[in-house]
Amino acid sequence: MRIYGGRLLKTMPGQDTRPTAARVREAVFNIWQGTITGCRWLDLCAGSGAMSAEALCRGAVRVVAIERSPRASAILQENLTKVATSEQNWRILRGDVLKRLEKLPPEQFDRIYFDPPYDSDLYLPVLEAIAHHQLLAPTGEIAVEHSTKSPPKTTATAEASLEICRQKAYGSTALTFYRPLTV
Questions:
Q1: If you count DSSP H runs as helices and E runs as strands, how many of each does the chain have, helices first?
Q2: Is the pTM for the entire model greater than 0.85?
């Protein structure tokens, strides 16, 4: 898989992870153009790390990637080591995304990318955890990747602090973007 600057990344064999399609990756970074340099990036269900690596290549100063699979985490480690500069800070947290979000030190992120398995029941609890732990910076955004057939649902908890700011579809893949609710 190639990312920004023609860099080649390692991917997982088989169907254990579903890498974000090049078209969707490009769309996310076009939408967030001008906001990645210097940003703090959180990648949830990071897989082999294409989104995190792309963020680093485009100038993110801090990346935290959470991935459950030991195999994917090893590839993620290899990929981020390959693209990061000495001025960039990055960290991989292996394990269940909800448990890892609970244990994150107090920190806010400018951009959060969340791409769980489409049929998982993670969408709602993760959005609630992001809202509850105030992980999104006041001017930040979350991009949630999902199937066009099943957009993520929210609850009063998430809706009290997050609002949908845009939605885009790319074939059978959709992105829903959230930002902090301004009162």
A1: 6, 9
A2: yes
